[in-house]
Fold Methyltransferase domain-containing protein.
Amino acid sequence: MDNTPIDKDFYRYDANHRFAAMYPLLARQIVDDCGIRTGVCLDVGTGGAPVLIELAKLTDCALIGLDAQAEVLDIARENVVRHGLPPQRFRFLKADVTEVPLAAGSVDLLISRGSIPFWPDHVAAFEELYRVLAPGGTGFIGCGFSRYQPLEEVRAMRPKWTGDGDADARNDWKKDGYLDKVLARAGVPEATVQADAYGVWVTLRKPVSSQTVAE
Ligand SMILES: C[S@@+](CC[C@H](N)C(=O)[O-])C[C@H]1O[C@@H](n2cnc3c(N)ncnc32)[C@H](O)[C@@H]1O
Protein backbone atom coordinates (compact mmCIF):
# COMPACT_ATOMS: atom_id res chain seq x y z
CA MET A 1 0.00 0.00 0.00
CA ASP A 2 1.24 3.50 -0.70
CA ASN A 3 1.03 6.42 1.71
CA THR A 4 -1.48 8.51 -0.24
CA PRO A 5 -3.96 10.08 2.21
CA ILE A 6 -7.28 8.26 2.12
CA ASP A 7 -10.39 9.81 0.57
CA LYS A 8 -12.52 9.95 3.71
CA ASP A 9 -15.61 10.95 1.72
CA PHE A 10 -15.39 7.73 -0.28
CA TYR A 11 -15.24 5.57 2.83
CA ARG A 12 -18.05 7.33 4.73
CA TYR A 13 -21.09 5.23 3.85
CA ASP A 14 -24.28 7.27 4.00
CA ALA A 15 -27.15 8.16 1.67
CA ASN A 16 -24.91 10.59 -0.22
CA HIS A 17 -22.28 8.00 -1.15
CA ARG A 18 -21.89 7.79 -4.91
CA PHE A 19 -22.59 4.04 -4.81
CA ALA A 20 -25.36 4.26 -2.19
CA ALA A 21 -27.94 2.77 -4.57
CA MET A 22 -25.67 -0.12 -5.49
CA TYR A 23 -24.45 -1.67 -2.24
CA PRO A 24 -27.90 -2.91 -1.03
CA LEU A 25 -28.58 -4.46 -4.45
CA LEU A 26 -25.19 -6.16 -4.54
CA ALA A 27 -25.74 -7.63 -1.07
CA ARG A 28 -29.19 -8.88 -2.11
CA GLN A 29 -27.73 -10.47 -5.24
CA ILE A 30 -24.95 -12.18 -3.25
CA VAL A 31 -27.42 -13.68 -0.77
CA ASP A 32 -29.78 -14.78 -3.57
CA ASP A 33 -26.91 -16.39 -5.48
CA CYS A 34 -25.35 -18.37 -2.65
CA GLY A 35 -28.22 -18.76 -0.16
CA ILE A 36 -25.82 -18.32 2.79
CA ARG A 37 -27.45 -16.47 5.70
CA THR A 38 -25.58 -17.86 8.70
CA GLY A 39 -21.97 -18.62 9.59
CA VAL A 40 -18.98 -16.36 9.02
CA CYS A 41 -18.80 -13.73 6.29
CA LEU A 42 -15.43 -12.16 5.44
CA ASP A 43 -15.12 -9.01 3.31
CA VAL A 44 -11.59 -8.48 1.98
CA GLY A 45 -10.61 -4.88 1.25
CA THR A 46 -13.75 -3.89 3.08
CA GLY A 47 -12.99 -0.15 3.08
CA GLY A 48 -15.85 1.55 4.93
CA ALA A 49 -17.59 -1.86 5.03
CA PRO A 50 -20.58 -0.89 2.86
CA VAL A 51 -21.14 -4.40 1.47
CA LEU A 52 -20.74 -5.93 4.94
CA ILE A 53 -23.21 -3.43 6.40
CA GLU A 54 -25.81 -4.35 3.78
CA LEU A 55 -25.16 -8.08 4.34
CA ALA A 56 -25.71 -7.49 8.07
CA LYS A 57 -29.24 -6.32 7.25
CA LEU A 58 -30.04 -9.46 5.21
CA THR A 59 -28.29 -12.25 7.10
CA ASP A 60 -27.46 -13.52 10.59
CA CYS A 61 -23.79 -13.96 9.69
CA ALA A 62 -20.92 -13.00 11.95
CA LEU A 63 -19.21 -10.30 9.91
CA ILE A 64 -15.47 -9.76 9.50
CA GLY A 65 -14.05 -6.83 7.56
CA LEU A 66 -10.39 -7.01 6.58
CA ASP A 67 -8.40 -4.15 5.12
CA ALA A 68 -4.74 -3.23 4.74
CA GLN A 69 -5.38 0.31 6.00
CA ALA A 70 -6.18 0.87 9.69
CA GLU A 71 -7.61 4.32 8.99
CA VAL A 72 -10.43 3.04 6.78
CA LEU A 73 -11.37 0.49 9.42
CA ASP A 74 -11.97 3.35 11.87
CA ILE A 75 -14.41 4.79 9.33
CA ALA A 76 -16.00 1.35 8.88
CA ARG A 77 -16.67 1.21 12.63
CA GLU A 78 -18.33 4.65 12.43
CA ASN A 79 -20.41 3.46 9.46
CA VAL A 80 -21.70 0.48 11.44
CA VAL A 81 -23.00 2.86 14.12
CA ARG A 82 -24.33 5.24 11.45
CA HIS A 83 -26.49 2.39 10.11
CA GLY A 84 -27.79 1.53 13.59
CA LEU A 85 -26.24 -1.94 13.55
CA PRO A 86 -24.86 -3.67 16.67
CA PRO A 87 -21.05 -3.27 16.65
CA GLN A 88 -20.65 -6.67 18.34
CA ARG A 89 -21.71 -8.39 15.09
CA PHE A 90 -18.63 -6.97 13.37
CA ARG A 91 -14.95 -7.67 13.74
CA PHE A 92 -12.36 -5.64 11.83
CA LEU A 93 -8.87 -6.88 10.98
CA LYS A 94 -5.98 -4.87 9.65
CA ALA A 95 -4.17 -7.31 7.37
CA ASP A 96 -3.09 -7.95 3.82
CA VAL A 97 -5.11 -10.24 1.57
CA THR A 98 -2.08 -12.52 1.28
CA GLU A 99 -1.91 -13.03 5.06
CA VAL A 100 -5.43 -13.42 6.41
CA PRO A 101 -5.26 -13.99 10.17
CA LEU A 102 -8.04 -16.59 10.20
CA ALA A 103 -8.05 -20.39 10.44
CA ALA A 104 -8.25 -22.55 7.33
CA GLY A 105 -11.82 -23.39 6.36
CA SER A 106 -13.35 -20.80 8.71
CA VAL A 107 -15.24 -18.56 6.25
CA ASP A 108 -18.63 -19.52 4.80
CA LEU A 109 -19.21 -16.45 2.65
CA LEU A 110 -16.27 -14.55 1.24
CA ILE A 111 -16.67 -11.28 -0.56
CA SER A 112 -14.35 -8.67 -1.96
CA ARG A 113 -15.46 -5.75 -4.06
CA GLY A 114 -13.18 -3.20 -5.65
CA SER A 115 -10.01 -4.35 -3.89
CA ILE A 116 -8.54 -6.80 -6.41
CA PRO A 117 -7.03 -4.09 -8.68
CA PHE A 118 -4.74 -3.10 -5.79
CA TRP A 119 -3.45 -6.58 -4.86
CA PRO A 120 0.24 -6.93 -5.67
CA ASP A 121 0.24 -10.75 -5.97
CA HIS A 122 -2.99 -12.27 -7.26
CA VAL A 123 -1.82 -15.88 -7.05
CA ALA A 124 -0.84 -15.51 -3.37
CA ALA A 125 -4.13 -13.70 -2.71
CA PHE A 126 -6.32 -16.42 -4.24
CA GLU A 127 -4.32 -19.17 -2.49
CA GLU A 128 -4.99 -17.44 0.80
CA LEU A 129 -8.67 -16.76 0.13
CA TYR A 130 -9.24 -20.36 -0.92
CA ARG A 131 -7.42 -21.55 2.23
CA VAL A 132 -9.81 -19.68 4.56
CA LEU A 133 -12.96 -20.67 2.64
CA ALA A 134 -14.94 -23.41 4.38
CA PRO A 135 -15.96 -26.59 2.54
CA GLY A 136 -19.35 -25.74 1.03
CA GLY A 137 -18.48 -22.04 1.15
CA THR A 138 -18.79 -19.49 -1.64
CA GLY A 139 -16.68 -16.50 -2.56
CA PHE A 140 -17.48 -13.49 -4.76
CA ILE A 141 -14.41 -11.50 -5.68
CA GLY A 142 -14.33 -8.74 -8.21
CA CYS A 143 -14.91 -5.22 -9.18
CA GLY A 144 -18.09 -3.67 -10.42
CA PHE A 145 -21.76 -3.41 -9.82
CA SER A 146 -24.87 -5.49 -9.15
CA ARG A 147 -26.74 -7.04 -12.01
CA TYR A 148 -29.92 -6.05 -10.11
CA GLN A 149 -29.22 -2.48 -11.16
CA PRO A 150 -30.26 -1.02 -14.54
CA LEU A 151 -27.25 -0.72 -16.85
CA GLU A 152 -27.87 3.01 -17.44
CA GLU A 153 -27.38 3.59 -13.69
CA VAL A 154 -24.25 1.45 -13.71
CA ARG A 155 -22.77 3.41 -16.60
CA ALA A 156 -23.44 6.68 -14.81
CA MET A 157 -21.78 5.40 -11.61
CA ARG A 158 -18.70 3.81 -13.15
CA PRO A 159 -15.53 5.68 -12.17
CA LYS A 160 -13.70 7.11 -15.17
CA TRP A 161 -10.35 5.38 -14.59
CA THR A 162 -11.71 1.88 -15.21
CA GLY A 163 -11.91 2.79 -18.87
CA ASP A 164 -8.22 3.68 -19.14
CA GLY A 165 -7.42 0.25 -20.52
CA ASP A 166 -3.93 -1.11 -20.95
CA ALA A 167 -2.21 2.03 -19.71
CA ASP A 168 -3.41 1.51 -16.15
CA ALA A 169 -1.75 -1.37 -14.23
CA ARG A 170 -4.89 -1.60 -12.09
CA ASN A 171 -6.61 -3.10 -15.14
CA ASP A 172 -4.04 -5.91 -15.68
CA TRP A 173 -6.14 -8.43 -13.76
CA LYS A 174 -9.02 -7.92 -16.21
CA LYS A 175 -7.00 -8.88 -19.27
CA ASP A 176 -8.15 -11.91 -21.28
CA GLY A 177 -7.22 -15.21 -19.63
CA TYR A 178 -5.30 -13.53 -16.76
CA LEU A 179 -7.64 -14.65 -13.99
CA ASP A 180 -7.96 -18.19 -15.37
CA LYS A 181 -4.17 -18.55 -15.16
CA VAL A 182 -4.08 -17.03 -11.66
CA LEU A 183 -6.81 -19.38 -10.41
CA ALA A 184 -5.06 -22.43 -11.89
CA ARG A 185 -1.72 -21.43 -10.36
CA ALA A 186 -3.40 -20.78 -7.01
CA GLY A 187 -4.82 -24.32 -7.09
CA VAL A 188 -8.47 -23.25 -7.04
CA PRO A 189 -10.42 -26.14 -8.59
CA GLU A 190 -13.90 -24.63 -8.89
CA ALA A 191 -14.20 -21.07 -10.07
CA THR A 192 -16.03 -19.10 -12.71
CA VAL A 193 -15.04 -15.75 -14.12
CA GLN A 194 -17.83 -13.54 -15.38
CA ALA A 195 -16.91 -10.40 -17.30
CA ASP A 196 -19.66 -8.19 -18.66
CA ALA A 197 -21.04 -4.66 -18.54
CA TYR A 198 -21.47 -4.98 -14.76
CA GLY A 199 -17.80 -5.65 -14.14
CA VAL A 200 -15.62 -8.67 -13.57
CA TRP A 201 -16.50 -11.15 -10.85
CA VAL A 202 -14.91 -14.43 -9.83
CA THR A 203 -17.11 -16.95 -8.03
CA LEU A 204 -15.25 -19.53 -5.93
CA ARG A 205 -16.91 -22.61 -4.54
CA LYS A 206 -15.13 -25.02 -2.23
CA PRO A 207 -16.53 -28.54 -2.55
CA VAL A 208 -18.18 -29.88 0.62
CA SER A 209 -15.86 -32.88 0.42
CA SER A 210 -12.70 -30.70 0.61
CA GLN A 211 -10.24 -31.49 3.34
CA THR A 212 -9.19 -28.53 5.43
CA VAL A 213 -5.40 -28.52 5.58
CA ALA A 214 -4.09 -27.65 9.04
CA GLU A 215 -1.90 -24.51 9.18
C1 LIG B 1 -11.85 0.82 -3.70
S1 LIG B 1 -11.78 0.30 -2.05
C2 LIG B 1 -13.19 -0.76 -1.98
C3 LIG B 1 -13.86 -0.69 -0.64
C4 LIG B 1 -15.18 -1.49 -0.52
N1 LIG B 1 -14.95 -2.91 -0.68
C5 LIG B 1 -16.22 -1.00 -1.50
O1 LIG B 1 -16.70 -1.81 -2.30
O2 LIG B 1 -16.56 0.18 -1.44
C6 LIG B 1 -10.41 -0.87 -2.02
C7 LIG B 1 -10.01 -1.30 -0.61
O3 LIG B 1 -9.07 -2.39 -0.72
C8 LIG B 1 -8.10 -2.22 0.30
N2 LIG B 1 -6.88 -2.95 -0.10
C9 LIG B 1 -6.04 -2.65 -1.13
N3 LIG B 1 -5.03 -3.54 -1.21
C10 LIG B 1 -5.24 -4.44 -0.21
C11 LIG B 1 -4.54 -5.60 0.21
N4 LIG B 1 -3.40 -5.99 -0.40
N5 LIG B 1 -5.01 -6.30 1.27
C12 LIG B 1 -6.16 -5.88 1.91
N6 LIG B 1 -6.86 -4.78 1.54
C13 LIG B 1 -6.42 -4.07 0.50
C14 LIG B 1 -7.89 -0.71 0.36
O4 LIG B 1 -7.30 -0.31 1.58
C15 LIG B 1 -9.31 -0.19 0.17
O5 LIG B 1 -9.97 0.01 1.40
